[in-house]
Design goal:
Pfam families: Thaumatin (PF00314). Belongs to the thaumatin family. This is Thaumatin-like protein. InterPro entries: Osmotin/thaumatin-like_sf, Thaumatin. Keywords: Disulfide bond, Signal. The protein is α+β, with helices and mostly antiparallel strands and 221 residues long. The protein has one domain: Thaumatin, CATH 2.60.110.10. The chain is built from five helices and 14 strands. Strands 2, 3, 5, 6, 7, 8 and 13 form a seven-stranded antiparallel beta sheet that branches. A five-stranded mixed beta sheet has the order 4-1-14-9-10, with no helix packed on it. The chain has a two-stranded antiparallel sheet with strand order 11-12. The radius of gyration is 19 Å and the shape is globular. The model is unreliable at 1-17 (pLDDT under 50).
Length: 221
């Protein structure tokens, strides 16, 4: 197939458009220090008002951003956190429950980004996850006092566990792929209607933007 200079220019432009990395700006508005974590991305201490910005490659899936609380690390970056712990300052994998999750997959079906807030790993810090470019304006929040209102069975130091973490049964973990809302999942859903409250909570909890959109994640918005 022969290309003219103009058609090659158009092709290169389209290619560069489809492979644009997404920028994520993570801000801590909590009145205390958090240790932001991202997979991919690593992690960073954020004092009140601090921001951390990083780019994520197009096509990335299974990604998440979360806050860790009450952390201590040594000079080599090894340590522990009360919530969201991954064992290191710069995480190389996911964190431990309970932790409020900003989840996303970039440039997927029809070149759409898919994003959500998930409470399937429980809750530790209020969170906002919103697009900041591309004409996409529908952001999502989970800002209820879930820690303060957490059912006794789900209470954990620094957060509120999802029932799967506590009971480890198919009813709550949906290991069979067939599960329904429970009183515990309704507790989360009533307080954060836009967030995942159990593993099959897709219909009201997944949002999309065009590929190439940039995003912000705000702790304690």
């Amino acid at each position: 197939m022969l290309f003219t200079i103009s058609s090659l220019t158009i092709l290169l432009h389209l290619t560069s458009t489809t492979v644009k990395a997404a920028n994520f700006a993570v801000t801590n508005n909590c009145p205390y220090t958090v240790w932001a974590a991202a997979s991919p991305g690593g992690g960073r201490q954020l004092n009140q008002g601090g921001t951390w910005s990083f780019d994520v490659d197009p096509g990335t899936a299974g990604a998440r951003i979360w806050a860790r609380t009450n952390c201590q690390f040594d000079g080599s970056g090894n340590g522990r956190c009360e919530t969201g712990d991954c064992g290191r300052l710069e995480c190389q994998g996911y964190g431990s429950p309970p932790n409020t999750l900003a989840e996303y997959a970039l440039n997927q079906f029809n070149n759409l980004d898919f994003f959500d807030i998930s409470l399937v790993d429980g809750f530790n810090v209020p969170l906002e996850f919103s697009p900041t470019s591309g004409g996409c304006s529908r952001g999502i929040r989970c800002t209820a006092d879930i820690n303060g209102q957490c059912p006794n069975e789900l209470r954990a130091p620094g957060g509120c566990n999802n029932p799967c973490t506590v009971f480890k049964t198919d009813e709550y973990c949906c290991t069979s792929g067939n599960c329904s809302p429970t009183p515990f999942s309704r507790f989360f859903k009533e307080r954060c209607p836009d967030a995942y409250s159990y593993p099959k909570d897709d219909q009201t909890s997944t949002f999309t933007c065009p590929g190439g959109t940039n995003y912000k994640v705000v702790f304690c918005p």
